[in-house]
Amino acid sequence: MTTKQIAVLPGDGIGSEVTSVAETILKAACAAYDVDIQTKNFLFGGCSYDEHGTPVTDDTLNSCLQSDAVLLGAVGGPKWDDLPSDHRPEAGLLKLRKTLGTYTNLRPIKIYSALMGASSVKPEILEGTDILIVRELTGGIYFGQPRHTKEVDGDTVATDAMVYSKSEIERVARKAFEAARKRNGRLCSVDKSNILDTSRLWRQTVSDLAGNYPDVELSHMLVDNCAMQLIRNPGQFDVILTGNMFGDILSDEASMLTGSIGMLPSASIGDKTGLYEPVHGSAPDIAGENKANPLAAIASAAMLCRYSLDLSDAADNIEAAIDDVLATGYRSGDIYASTQGEILIGTKEMGEKVFGELKKKAITR
Ligand code: IPM
Ligand code: MG
């Protein structure tokens, strides 16, 4: 039996409900491969601010760095919306990503056939859609300097800087080329190179790397066109590579192809500890009501197995268990279309259903 240490940061709102379900699934999936998962919980986001006056303490950051992986829920909520920017829960998340050096964020857009009807996009448009969004996560306008709000000539002026270096673009682009190589061999790099200098450097840098990956077909697309193409013909994409802010926006848009943002997992990887979190937010409106969809958190636990523990079989089992539960008709509120055969269930019950399917797979492996 090997032991792996996982830092769990439930965060705010529905975060604790979805991570506790994901934790149970993670432990069960890994136990089947003789890996013992030991978890330790830490306050993170608004709840950490309430307790410690900061959204993330240095102790928590160090514990995350020393773990084998970090499983995160969600942060934020109206209670902390008016705090100065560096105390906000979101600032804690950016600090965590930067500290862990997770410059590559993988957001798979997988369409479960059972959920075709739950999407706001027609099934015939969704046919064949399977996209991996690779979002740069520790640079760009989220981190650029200068950043300030000042009085200038009697007016108030706010500045955020979009900054990218060639080396920052290269390291995430390599990850995207490698991912495309393992999938269908197509990479679409998305930028705004008709306007932005950072985008022109982005496009040039990605193009320069393409020679090292002759088996990958590289294309470029402007971000506004990409936003349109994702809804018009999502099947044309295999891997999408883009910067921090464009990736944030495009991944929320793409989540609607799957039926709900409650279905979207993510993995953030780099040189140090990997960070796994659902793409959705803390949903304060339904927090504590056992209504949240835990499937994105569970699917994030699957990515954790794959990328941080090298347990791709455990990851496959979790993903197959999700498939089976959806195929049987179980739905959380966000993916419930009230058609025949669908059964509306809560967060914990959804976790139990996935657990049940997973157990069957672990026994028959
Ligand atoms: C995401 C979220 C975060 C981001 C927020 C909560 C800071 O929207 O992970 O997509 O913008 O990166
Ligand atoms: Mg986002």
Order of helices and strands: EHEHHEHEHEEEHEHEHEHEEHHEEH
Could you say what the CATH topology of the largest domain is called? Isopropylmalate Dehydrogenase
The CATH architecture assignment of the largest domain turns out to be 3-Layer(aba) Sandwich
| Structural class by helix and strand composition | alpha/beta
Q: Roughly how many Å is the radius of gyration?
A: 20 Å
Please identify the top-level CATH class of the largest domain: Alpha Beta
Q: What's the tally of helices? A: 12
Cα(first) to Cα(last) distance is 18 Å
The CATH fourth-level homologous superfamily of the largest domain: Isopropylmalate Dehydrogenase
Number of strands: 14
Characterize the structure shown.
The chain is of the alpha/beta class and 365 residues long. It folds into 2 domains: 1-110 and 262-365, Isopropylmalate Dehydrogenase (3-Layer(aba) Sandwich), CATH 3.40.718.10; 120-258, Isopropylmalate Dehydrogenase. It is 41% helix and 21% strand. The protein contains 12 helices and 14 strands. The protein has helices at 15-31, 46-52, 58-66, 89-100, 123-126, 166-182, 197-209, 223-232, 244-255, 295-308, 312-328, 347-364; strands at 2-11, 35-41, 69-74, 104-110, 130-136, 147-152, 155-160, 186-191, 217-222, 239-242, 267-269, 274-276, 330-331, 343-344. The strands form 3 sheets. A 10-stranded mixed β-sheet has the order 2-1-3-12-11-4-5-10-8-9, with helices on both faces. A hairpin with a 2-residue loop joins β6 (147-152) and β7. α1 (15-31) crosses α10 (295-308), α1 (15-31) crosses α11 (312-328) and α8 runs parallel beside α9 (244-255). The chain is globular. It starts with a strand and ends with a helix. Residues 90, 93, 248, 279 line the site of 3-isopropylmalic acid.
